[in-house]
Design brief:
This protein has helices spanning about 1-10, 15-35, 40-45, 55-110. By secondary structure, the protein is mainly alpha-helical.
Length: about 120
């Protein structure tokens, strides 16, 4: 905070006590406008400790981006596996449906007497 007090003394011509009071007033006002979870960060900024809000935001943003990319990659891989399995299942279902239809056609032909029977093939001696 001393850094800010010195700057106010030089630029605004305030006494050390006036500058300190001005900084404390600003800190209180800023804290009243943001959630309590940000208060520690505000104190750090005015105490001259830690990273700036912009640096913290950038670090958070970078971490979030990395996690989202990893999640996206995993989701893409899992969806691809799911699509392959779904395609296999659809092929199996199609084959079984074709077999069922063919069986029903044969039974219906037998029932209606419209099926032409193929003579058994003679075996060669």
């Amino acid at each position: 905070m001393q850094e800010y007090i010195n700057e106010l003394q030089q630029k605004a011509g305030l006494t050390a006590e006036q500058a300190k009071k001005a900084i404390e007033t600003i800190i209180a006002k800023v804290k009243s406008k943001v959630p309590e979870s940000f208060h520690g960060g505000i104190d750090s900024i005015f105490a001259g400790q830690g990273e700036s809000i912009q640096q913290k935001y950038q670090a958070f943003s970078d971490q979030a981006e990395e996690k989202l990319k990893a999640f996206g990659g995993q989701a893409k891989e899992q969806l691809s596996d799911f699509a392959d399995k779904a395609e296999d299942i659809a092929g199996d279902v199609q084959q079984k449906a074709d077999e069922m239809i063919k069986g029903l056609e044969d039974k219906l032909s037998d029932f209606l007497g419209t099926k032409t029977k193929t003579p058994p093939t003679a075996e060669k001696p």
